[in-house]
Amino acid sequence: MKQGPQTVYLSILVMLLFARQGAMAQEFISKTLVMFGDPDLNTGINPSGNLALGKDGRLYGTATCFQVFGTNHATVFGVNRDGTGLSVLHHFGDIVRDGTYPANGVIEASDGALYGITQLGGSLNYGTVFKVNTDGSGYQILWNFLGSQNGDGVNPQAGLIEGSDGALYGTTPFGGAGVLGTVFRLNKDGTAYSIIKSFGRSSAEGVNPSGLLEGTDGVLYGVTYLGGSGRGGTIFKLSKDGSEFSGVKLEPAWREPMDSSALRTAMRQTTERAFTARWNNSEIPCFATPAPVGRTLTVV
Question: 0.85 cut: is pTM over it?
């Protein structure tokens, strides 16, 4: 195995589960399907987030590294489940004001297209929602996040979901009218974008929301990283039109008494420091090493 900065030991593993005939014990066998960066960095570096299993049987995902050694290496990729047919559907940064740092994979929606988010890039560098077909055609930015100064979300991190109504739903951990996060909705053609919930107006509701799912009752469920009456985050439910919201507290992050305004100030300062530390530079660090780092993406 060659050494040097051109080799990145990041792989996709597929875990094959089978039961030994005549035995109760189960065994796992792993097979490395793809070594990202070996030998070609252009397929992407540092895959992260969830893989999507397409209707065509292929696996789809994102490699997050935007720039290393002066070159763009963030991609949307597809690969067969036996490791053959690796293809790059999109190189981020190949168009003006493209999104950067696609951190949470993609979903395949009911129309057969792939949808995802980037944490940075776009018209104001606050991130984007994008779409691309499974053959790499039709890439487009559906939404450029506009930042809290415009009442919009900032730097989405969690992936998207498709609701039973056919719309896309997602979260941003910062931004919105309350500054500390949003739940947003938009159609798959990029129209009718709206924020259906802003966090931060009341610390009891929680702040810094993360990923969503839709329950069998047609309601959205998610979590917040901080806030709530216990100050350690919440699990919340939200109607898809944003009209009904409720949450339950998680364990407190701290126990000393703190009034509501002081709590909001402390959380705002904490998240702003984290935001500044992480997003102050447009180039996110990438990890390209000449030795195995033990970082894998798995499908079970």
Answer: no
Helices vs strands, H then E, count in the chain: 1, 25
Query: Distance between CA 55 and CA 133 in Å, rounded?
Result: 12
Report d(CA 155, CA 182) in Å as an integer.
11
Q: What are the distances in angstroms from CA 211 to CA 19, 40, 50, 247, 278? A: 34, 32, 12, 15, 19
- Which residues, listed in sequence order, are joined to residue 254 by a DSSP beta bridge? none
Q: How far is CA 41 from CA 35, 69, 79, 97, 164, in A?
A: 10, 10, 16, 22, 38
Q: Show Cβ contacts of residue 147 under 8 Å, excluding neighbours closer than 6 positions.
A: 124, 126, 154, 175
CB distance 230 to 252 below 8 Å: yes
User: How many Cα atoms occupy the beta-carbon half-sphere of 215 within 13 Å?
Assistant: 9
Q: What is the pLDDT of residues 105-117, one digit of tens each?
A: 999 999 999 999 9
